[in-house]
Amino acid sequence: MGGDSGPGVVVPGALDAAREMGLSLILVGDETMLRGELSRSDTSGLDVEVIHTTQVAEMTDKPSDVLRRKKDSSIQVACRLVKEGRADGVVSAGHSGASVACGMFVIGRVKGVLRPAFAGVLPTVKKPMVLLDVGANVDSKPEHLFQFGILGEVLARDVLGFAQPRVGLLSIGEEEGKGNSLVKETFDRLKASSLRFVGNVEGRDVFTGDVDVVVCDGFVGNVALKLSEGLASSMAKVLKRELMSSWLGKIGTFLAKGRLRSFARFVDYAEYGGAPLLGLAGIVIVCHGASNPKAISSAVKMAGRFVESGANDHIKKALDKHKGLGG
């Protein structure tokens, strides 16, 4: 029910993903609105259930208030379905704080996970990479960052399909010993693990495609994510302005429109859908409020791949293997 466009975007996007991957859907929210959207779509051959709720987590609501006072909000009911085993994951374009709160306190964590982490899937010059944490934890300890490396490695392998993900640690220099005390101690833990740890990664190297998972605390990760999004948006605007400033530029734009479309897809968040909150007993993916149907479809497909690959079981095994390093 959340997001800028509500069911008008969520329903067609979810149906597209279900059709492509053979997923079952539970649409949670106002039944009249949801069935109205379903009536405008082809649902033949799809397994779609509608569960009616009477409340919505508004953007003005505090996450704690949603937990305590909006028991019948669509996000809390959706998370409860996962807790009860009736669903495997949740995709939401609504109130991100409420989504995180309900995920953590209704669904709960995977046994052994100290803190769930938001993972951003970002484009690079070679292939997508995982940056985490990008905002769930603004005060982290070395054992938390170490576990973020495990969570990101499983996402990169099970969902993105990288056979042996390379894990790096975001720092102010490539050399061992660079960074603050948090980074230095995390470095030692990652180095001692069985992860394919490639060492420190500077900010300028994040988008080279030479590392598949970059670990950082949520404060740094959120700044890096927002800076990257802002830079991509600004570059696109500058490029358009320069290309349209002369007749020669306009002709060049016409001739290169195919390549420009490829560039637009490269920087489009809709290609990756949303940010998964890793470490929960069921996957929760939080999408942009301005998500279009394509973004919702990408997020639902990501959730489907996460569940079908058995990613949470792999997280549990990796945590057990590294008990002495990750808390």
UniProtKB/TrEMBL annotation:
Which chain regions cross the lipid bilayer? none
Instruction: Report which superkingdom the organism of origin falls in.
Output: Bacteria
Cellular component per GO, a single term: cytoplasm
Catalytic activity of the protein:
a fatty acyl-[ACP] + phosphate = an acyl phosphate + holo-[ACP]
Biological process terms in GO annotation: fatty acid biosynthetic process; phospholipid biosynthetic process
> Does the keyword section mention Cytoplasm?
yes
Question: Listed GO molecular functions?
Answer: phosphate:acyl-[acyl carrier protein] acyltransferase activity
Database matches in Pfam families: FA_synthesis
According to UniProt, this protein's pathway is: Lipid metabolism; phospholipid metabolism
Q: Which UniProt key words apply to this protein?
A: Acyltransferase, Cytoplasm, Lipid biosynthesis, Lipid metabolism, Phospholipid biosynthesis, Phospholipid metabolism, Transferase
Compartmental location: Cytoplasm
InterPro entries associated with the record: FA_synthesis, Phospholipid_synth_PlsX-like
EC? 2.3.1.274
Physiological role: Catalyzes the reversible formation of acyl-phosphate (acyl-PO(4)) from acyl-[acyl-carrier-protein] (acyl-ACP). This enzyme utilizes acyl-ACP as fatty acyl donor, but not acyl-CoA.
Q: Which HAMAP family match?
A: PlsX (MF_00019)
Q: What family does this belong to?
A: Belongs to the PlsX family.
Entry-linked NCBIfam families = plsX
Q: How does it assemble?
A: Homodimer. Probably interacts with PlsY.
Can you say what this protein is called? Phosphate acyltransferase
**Gene that this sequence comes from:** plsX
